[in-house]
Amino acid sequence: MNQLLQLKRIDTCLLTVKVFKRDVQVNFSSINYSDFVSPEEEQKRMNRKRGKIKKFSKRSARRLRHLIRNTEDKWKVFITLTYPEDYPSNGRETKVHLNSFLQYLRGRKTKSIWVLEFQSRGAPHYHLLASNQVAKEEIAERWYKIVGSGDEKHLRAGTRVESIRSKGHLYGYVSTYIRKSGQKQVPDGYEEVGRFWGSSRDILIWEAFERIGHFYELVWSIKLIRNWHRAHLRRFGIRWKWKGKGFIALDGVSLVNQIMALKL
After folding, report:
1. What domains can be seen in the chain, in order of their start residue?
2. What is the pTM of this model?
């Protein structure tokens, strides 16, 4: 049964190529896999609940980088939201505060990406990328009211707003707070941390191409992209060996555009 399943998955596959702003995502999947899943196993999959989030995983960090790389032209402002001396130690409560602030941004037709971190004192704080300029005084007053701190010092210093000067400035800032693993550690006593980052809807745009066929036929059709991606990584001293699964070709859009032009 296992051998039959393996052969069947290799025989008929769906190749999906998503072309984003900068990167190209290639993915293989079997269109016959569900034929071999027992009803009991299918029911288990449907009933399976997502486990509680306890840390900022490497996979989550990769998804965040991918999102920012391919929406880089949208972002105009960095925003930091911090808490006063007294702060909540429950993730659900801080997310209520964050959602109230995001609703305020949405009212101003402003898209955003947010990231959760913890200060050395254990207090949560949020970094945001925003798509429109917003006055610091307005943000400070809004966040001050949302958390209900009543601390004038927090009103003056509880927020930070900084314009994004260039893409280099954007990536320098982003790489700093994504790599600060120490500030992603959940402090003792902090409960229900929840998600470490999130974003507005419909900010990531791509064009998708799909093709169904024999596995080896589809492999041949993406050979140029695989070889280019391998050479591209080699320039940075990274050795990559394709294992027959999906991959993301960083900065591969220019190559795909050249291929599409040749086909015309």
Report:
1. 2-50+206-263 (no CATH), 71-199 (3.30.70.260)
2. 0.82
pLDDT in tens, the chain (264 residues): 444 344 444 578 889 999 999 999 999 887 754 444 555 665 565 555 555 666 778 888 889 999 999 999 999 999 999 999 989 899 999 999 999 999 999 999 999 999 999 988 888 999 999 999 999 999 999 999 999 988 889 999 999 999 998 888 888 877 776 666 556 788 888 888 889 999 999 999 999 999 998 888 888 889 999 999 999 899 889 898 888 888 999 899 988 888 777 654
Between helix 167-179 and helix 58-69 the angle, nearest 10°, is: 170
Q: What span, in angstroms and rounded, lies between the C-alpha atoms of 72 and 90?
A: 32
Amino acid at 229: H
